[in-house]
Structures are given as C-alpha cells and as structure tokens.
Design brief:
Elements (H helix, E strand, L loop, with lengths): L2 H16 L8 E6 L5 H16 L3 E6 L4 H14 L3 E4 L8 H9 L4 E4 L13 E4 L2 H16 L4 E7 L5 H14 L5 E8 L4 H15 L6 E4 L2 H13 L9 E6 L2 H8 L5 E4 L5 H14 L6 E3 L4 E3 L5
Parallel strand pairs: 1-2, 1-3, 3-4, 4-5, 5-11, 6-7, 6-8, 8-9, 9-10
Antiparallel strand pairs: 10-12
Helix pairs in contact: 3-4, 5-6, 7-8
Length: about 300
C-alpha cells in the first residue's frame, strides 16, 4: 500500500470512528423493578420487542423490587460502558449518588414508568411516564359518578410505599374524594402492587369493616384488585355488584374480571414506555437532539361498556 493510500485509509477509519452510533450499535441497560405484576411483565416483554424492532441490544436486570439491586445493576451497566441506561425506579428517593456516576461517565439515563425526587432532575435525560395523578383522579371521578351521590365507604389498596406512582395515584384519587362528601376512604394500606398482598390486605379490610359496609375498592394497580376480588368472593361478597371496583393498569386479567361482571373499571397504563425512550436515545445519540424532560403517555378509562 502506498503512503498516500495508507493515509487515506487511516483518515477513513478516523471519520468512521467519530460518527455517532447507529441503532444497530447501541447497547442499553435496563434496570427493571421486577415482575411483581402482570403489567410489569408486559412492560418487560414490550421493551424487548421495541428494542428488537430498532436493532438495539437491550440488557435487562431484574431487581426483584429492591433498590440496592437496581443500584448494583446501574453500576454494572456503567462498568460495561453501555450507551444508555433505562431505570424504572422502585422508590423515588436515594438515586442521586449512582445517577451522578452515570452522568460523570457520560451515559444518559431515561426513567421509565416512575419518577424520582426533584433533587435528581438534572441527573437524567428524560422520563417516559403517564400522569399518575391524573390516573388517580380519573379513577376517583368514575367512582363519584358510579356512586350517584349515595354514601360510599371506600377501601384503598396502595402501591409500594415510597414509589412516586403510588403517591401520585393516591393524590389524584384523594383530590376527587375531597370534592365529594359522600365518598369516604375508611381504610388505606399498601398491597405492594402484588396480587397475593392485595388479597391479604383485602381480607383484613373485610374483617375490620365487615363486608357489607364496604361500598367500593380502589386499587393502585389491577393485580392487587384481582387479589381483592378473590378475597371478596371467598367472603361471600359479589365484587362488581355488591362492591364497586376501580383500579389502574388495564391488564388482561382485569378485563376478564370486567367481562365476568366481577370488576367495574380500570384506567389504562400503556406498557410501551421503552419505544418512546429508545426513539429519544437514538435521536440524542445520532443528532444531539435533547428530548423534553417529560414524555407523557396516554391514560384511558375502560368499563364493561367498552366491551373489553
């Protein structure tokens, strides 16, 4: 090879190396909370599918609902030199230190489904979430209408303590309760977003209140509601008839319950958070396009009238 040809080839290699990574070259680490619910499992499945569509390598670490596992996973992704990190934070606080490490490594972080405390806002690129306050309000508005002005004692199954989505879904629901004197939340306890815990807590509500005094159940997710429905049936109640139900996520099992007349309403939370997140990362990596700080997903109410 002549020196001129060698210099030309060297220049070509240098130019190629300086070009932004294509989707096929991107590797994204995803610190997923776990698989505590049908919705979470769907989110993981959809995330894999969306990455495959875009020819992105997606590495998923299941944290089994433990923040310490998520922090370890993020540090592992940083050590591997991934192009971006997706984080579905199990709780809203305690992320500043590890996200600073990612920022120092120049690895953009995108939040999926849940937000973190305001102190960490500058440590991530964008958050792809629903408006979970709005979701709670939609659930509350449906119940206010369904109760028709009659006195209605409500029991509430909350999500994981400290999770932004649980805090916000409660806040939205409470805002409607405050405007409707006939609605009264008589019991409220965490069911940890799981079916088993939802059943257990609902059993304790029925024992404490007496099944016939409970007018409605509000659950921060459908899996807890499915567990609550089982508890009500075992106690001789007719959920969906004796007791009104409204929950959030719109997973297949709650639609089965609605079709069977054992549940009344659910507010949809799309499991496709990764699609918009991947598009944002690809544009950021290729062109330096900075996405909005919040990419909002749509929420919709479903009842039996929608023939789910």
């Amino acid at each position: 090879m002549t020196s001129k040809a060698f210099l030309a080839a060297t220049a070509l290699v240098a130019i190629t190396l300086s070009l932004p990574a294509t989707a096929a070259e991107l590797t994204v680490g995803f610190s997923q909370i776990g698989s505590e619910s049908g919705w979470r499992a769907a989110e993981t499945s959809v995330s894999k599918s969306e990455a495959t569509k875009r020819k992105v390598t997606l590495k998923i670490a299941d944290a089994q609902q433990k923040q310490e596992n998520q922090i370890k996973a993020i540090r592992s992704f940083i050590a591997q030199g991934v192009d971006a990190i997706f984080l579905a934070p199990v709780v809203s606080s305690g992320w500043d230190a590890v996200l600073k490490e990612a920022k120092e490594a120049k690895i953009p972080v995108v939040l999926l489904d849940r937000d973190i405390d305001p102190s960490g806002k500058e440590l991530y690129l964008t958050a792809v979430t629903s408006d979970s306050v709005h979701e709670g309000a939609v659930a509350g508005e449906w119940l206010a209408k369904a109760a028709g002005g009659k006195a209605c004692n409500v029991v509430e199954l909350q999500g994981t303590v400290g999770a932004s989505v649980a805090t916000n879904r409660k806040k939205g629901f409470d805002s409607v309760v405050a405007k409707n004197a006939n609605l009264k939340v008589v019991r409220s306890q965490t069911g940890d977003f799981t079916r088993a815990k939802g059943k257990e807590v609902m059993e304790s509500f029925i024992k404490a209140e007496g099944g016939k005094t409970i007018c409605a159940v509000y659950a921060h997710n459908d899996d807890m509601m499915v567990g609550a429905i089982q508890a009500m049936k075992e106690a001789g109640l007719k959920p969906g008839k004796d007791v009104l139900t409204v929950s959030i996520d719109a997973v297949p099992d709650i639609f089965k319950a609605i079709a069977a007349g054992e549940a009344n309403a659910t507010v949809e939370l799309t499991p496709n958070m990764a699609g918009p997140a991947l598009d944002a990362i690809m544009a950021f990596k290729a062109k330096g396009t900075v996405p909005p700080k919040w990419i909002q997903t749509e929420s919709k109410l479903y009842t039996a009238a929608d023939d789910p």
